[in-house]
Structures are given as C-alpha cells and as structure tokens.
Design goal:
217 residues; alpha+beta; 48% helix; 16% strand
C-alpha cells in the first residue's frame, strides 16, 4: 500500500481474532440455509483460512465447507465440486456466496435420496474473523527495493496483500500488482497475476514472486 511518498510500498500485516457466530448446521439443508445469513467475513474465513494455516502442504479439500461435507456428511461428489470452485474468479464475497449456494442447490436437485443429518457434536460451526491491520515497518522505495524487501515479510503480510486484496479492492489483482502497474511495470504485474496462490504454499508463492524480480538492477 502507499504512504505519503507515492512511490513507496508499505507492507502491512494483520492480526486475526477468530470468533463463533453462533450459527451451526447439521445437514446440507441447514448448511444451505445458514450460508444465506452468515456475515461475509464468515464466508471469507471458511474459504480462505486454510491457505494461511497450512503453509507446508496442500489439502485435497482447501476450504472448510468441502472438508466438513466430505468427512462428516460423506458427500464426496459435492465436496469435490466445492473444492473445485476457483476463488480467483470472484471480486466480491456476494458472488462467492452465490456460487457456493448454487453448487449445493444443483447437487441437491440431482439427488433421489435424503442426505445425512449429523450429531450435534459434529455440526459445522460458522466462525468469522475480526482483522486488525498493522504496519510491518517495512517500506520499499522503488521497484528493485520492493523485490529486495520481499524476503523480509511474513506469510501473514503476504496473505494480506495477495489473498485479501482482490476482495478488498473488488478487482482481480493483488496489492503488489496494482502498485507495480502504477510504477509502469505492467510486465511484472502481469507475471504476478498469473501466479495462482491457491495451488501454492505461501512460502512457494513468496519464492516465485521474488524470482520474478531477480534480474532487476
């Protein structure tokens, strides 16, 4: 993000406080009903938090909905459909919520049987996060300095600028790409936009971004 010096990039980070919403679901029907009323921060939490929590391995089911549907309700086909939703295609939580809901609706419409209702202790418990944005103290003066400073930032900072930026800015780009375009480096911005963060660990994502700037002077 920019500070008073319009040429500088200020690396921010965030602290997250996870809280329960009090909304639970024991079946697909209840999950579908709850999806329509939980806050947007809950939808974001359950579709993105695994990418911050698991830095060294990738899960078959990268979001909480698909994990619960697979492990608890044992609806593998639906779990796979939800896991296959491309989060990069959305610039608002509203669109993402609708896509998840429509996927469940389509699946249920094709069933000729009742779905499982789990025990209360197995219920899906909707959470949300309260985020507190903080400066890291790391500031890049120009494009070469930006890539030189990247090894210093934490995964939490990378997550904030890369995962949250598209939904925060309502555009299909990260804070990094937006800033680089403002510096007339569309080539680097495009190259970063082509990196799919949902198939990389945060450590690998950082390495790949750093590599893009390796030849800068």
């Amino acid at each position: 993000m920019k500070n008073q010096n319009q040429n500088a990039f200020v690396f921010d980070t965030e602290l997250r406080l996870i809280v329960l919403t009090g909304i639970t679901a024991r079946s697909l029907v209840e999950l579908r009903q709850a999806l329509a009323k939980v806050p947007e921060s809950s939808i974001f939490f359950h579709t993105h938090q695994k990418h911050l929590a698991h830095n060294f391995q990738q899960s078959t089911y990268p979001n909480d909905f698909s994990i619960w549907i697979s492990h608890t309700l044992r609806e593998e086909a639906l779990a796979e459909k939800l896991a296959a939703i491309d989060l990069r295609a959305f610039t608002t939580i509203r669109e993402l919520r609708e896509a998840i809901g429509q996927t469940i609706d389509d699946y249920q419409a094709g069933l000729s049987r009742s779905t499982y209702v789990c025990r209360q202790e197995e219920a899906f418990r909707f959470c949300r996060s309260k985020n507190f944005i903080l400066p890291t103290g790391i500031v890049a003066r120009d494009v070469p300095d930006f890539f030189a400073k990247l090894p210093q930032i934490t995964n939490a900072s990378l997550y904030f600028h890369f995962f949250e930026a598209p939904l925060r800015l309502k555009r299909r780009t990260s804070d990094f790409s937006r800033w680089l375009r403002d510096r007339c480096r569309d080539d680097l911005a495009r190259a970063i936009d082509e990196l799919n963060p949902y198939i990389r660990t945060l450590d690998k994502l950082k390495q790949d971004i750093i590599r893009l700037g390796a030849n800068l002077q």
